[in-house]
Write a structure and sequence with these properties.
Largest sheet: 5 strands, parallel
Shape: globular
Strand order of the largest sheet: 3-2-1-4-5
Strand content: 15-25%
Helix content: 40-55%
Radius of gyration: 18 Å
């Protein structure tokens, strides 16, 4: 089956990636926005839609903004829910459409998702996947640009 969506536990990934939004608190808007931006770049490189789940509970003065686009969806859990609850439900609901990949370092969450047939990845492995995909994209763009420059130079 083809991979139809990547479901990301946002705070789990942020805590595993200290270089992203370095110096910003892991639960800050700055860190979340940096993660969303990085996952948008990854989605551009791989083409698979991504949903990022954040725990929305707690005492916040303002409601977290939802930076969703058509290819990268950002969701916050409501009161009485966790991001894990939403991830499990989404992974189960996407099953008839193809394979989903759940990204989290929560062992219980990974066991639950793999128990009903979903694929799972640790945050460290997913960070490596992102870095490899973005490096491949940059290399492909450089090769394309070099070919176009050569083609343009020869046509003069």
């Amino acid at each position: 089956m083809a991979l139809v969506r990547i479901l990301v536990d946002g705070y789990s990934l942020l805590h595993s990636w200290p270089e992203l939004a370095e110096g910003a608190a892991r639960h800050s808007e700055v860190a979340r926005d940096a993660l969303v931006e990085m996952l948008q770049a990854y989605q551009d490189a791989c083409g698979t839609p991504v949903t990022i789940f954040f725990d929305g509970r707690g005492n916040r003065k303002t409601k977290p903004k939802n930076n969703s686009t058509s290819a990268v969806e950002v969701l916050f859990s409501s009161s009485g829910q966790t991001a894990d609850d939403l991830i499990e439900r989404a992974a189960h609901r996407f099953q008839p459409y193809g394979e989903v990949l759940v990204v989290t370092d929560d062992f219980a969450e990974r066991a639950t998702v793999s128990g009903f047939g979903g694929s799972v990845a640790s945050c460290g492995n997913f960070i490596a996947m992102i870095q490899n995909a973005l490096a491949d994209l940059a290399e492909n763009l450089n090769n394309h640009n070099r070919k176009e420059r050569n083609r343009f130079s020869r046509s003069r």
